[in-house]
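User: Can you predict the 3D structure for this chain?
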Amino acid sequence: MNLQISSVKDVKVSRTQRNEQGFSILQLVVTLTLASIISTFAIINIHSTRENLRLQNSIRQLASYLEKARLDAIRRHGTSTVIFNSGTAYDVSMDFDGTGTPSTRRFPFENGVEIFSTLPSVNFNWRGRTQSCTITFAAQNSRGEQSWVDVSDAGDVTVNSDVDVLPTAYYANINSSASVQSSTIVTGTIVHDNSPDCPAGSSGTVGPPISGGGPGCIDSADPSSISIRKSGGSSATITVHATNTGTVVGIAPINLNVTPASQTVTGGGTATFTVTSINNTRGTFAVNFGSPCTTLTVLITVTN
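Assistant: Here is the predicted structure, written as C-alpha cells:
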C-alpha cells in the first residue's frame, strides 16, 4: 500500500516538474521565427499602404487645384494656370485671396511621388476651357504604382478615368414649321462649326525624324514622336539609323515596353524597335535610344 502511494506521488511530482520547465529552446526558436515573419509582412504591408496613400493624396490635391484654377478663371473672366516646372512640384497661378489679383504658389507632391511623363501644364481661359485636347498628368510613387489626372478640352477634371471618348448621341429630325414656333427662330447666315474638338480615335501626327548632334553610333530615329493606344491597343515602330557599329538600347518608363530591349547595329545600318503600352496610363512619355556614343529621345503619346 505504501509502495502504491509512493508511486502515485512520484508520477505527480514528475508531471509537475515537466509543467514548470515551460517551453523548450526549439519551441522558443519556432515561436520567434513565426513572430518575425508575421512582423515582416506587416511592416511591408504598412509601407506599401503608406506609399499608395502618398500617391493618392498627391493626385487628389493636384485634381483639387486644377478644379479651383478652372473655377477661378471663370469667376474672374480671366486665365489661370497649373504648370509643372519639375517632376515633384507644380505652380498654380490664380486668385487665392479673393481680391481679384492672381498670384502664384508652389505645391509639392508628397515624398516619393513624381511626374513620370513629360512635364505637363494647363491654361484655363475665361470659359474654363483649355487650348488643346485632353491633358494627362501621370505620376508614380517609389514602388512604381501609377495614377493620373485628366483635364479635357472642356475643362473637366477627372482622376484615373477616360474623358475624351464621348458616347454616341442620337438625334431626331423635327419639322421646323410644325414643331418650332416662328418667334423662336433666329435668322442669320452664320454656320456654326459643330465638329468635335477632340474626336475619338484621333492618333495625332507623326513627328519628323530626329537627328543627334556630333559623331555617334546612332544619328537618327524615325519618327521623333508618335501616338499609340493604351494597354496594347496599338504599337509604334521606331527605326534607328547607325553611323558606327554598336549596341543600341531602348529605355522606357515602366508603363511602356520596348522590344527588343537592345540590338547590335552595324555602321550604315538600321535597327527597328517596337513600343507598346502595357497598362492604361495615358500621357506623353520619353523613350530613349542610347548607345555608348549618343542618346536620342522619341516622344510617345499614349491615348485611349
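The mean pLDDT is 79. The two ends are 94 Å apart (CA to CA).
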